[in-house]
Amino acid sequence: MSVTIFYLEMSSPEQLNEKKDALGLQIVEAEIDEFRLNKFLYQLIGEQWQWHDKLLLSDEHWQQYVSSPNLRTWVAYYQGTIAGYFELKSDDNGNTEVVYFGLAPHFIGKGFGGYMLSQAIKNAWAIPNTKRVWVHTCSLDHQSALLNYQARGFKLYKTELESV
């Protein structure tokens, strides 16, 4: 089986085509590092999209990953329930990656994705020294994922075909 990987980027905050209607979604940064939260979110959101590469990692690896000063995590809530999350990771060259982004199964198709992605992008540009925001998605993700990234202003810069 082959998977297509799409790499997208934004080179200025003005490229953001923001969706402003939150529809009751609240997005909060997890300001205290707790690797179990990230591990839980990764599994909750990623299970349906075959995110399994990190599930076998040790707790020590998760702790190291989450405690990186360049990684920040936001959780989306709807009526008190976790609806989704995103992680942003910056580097010393001014690149900020939307590392993980997604909605929990019950919240897909309710119009939350555009707003949550807009918030991810705005928070990425707010990280000091960010010159470029980028993300990758693949053909295993939700059918609207690529369209949502492009609708928010990301431009496709590379496509790869990978055998799995």
UniProtKB/TrEMBL annotation:
InterPro entries: Acyl_CoA_acyltransferase (IPR016181), GNAT_dom (IPR000182). Gene3D superfamilies: 3.40.630.30. CDD domains: NAT_SF. Pfam families: Acetyltransf_1. Residues 25-164 form the N-acetyltransferase domain. This is N-acetyltransferase. It comes from Psychromonas marina.
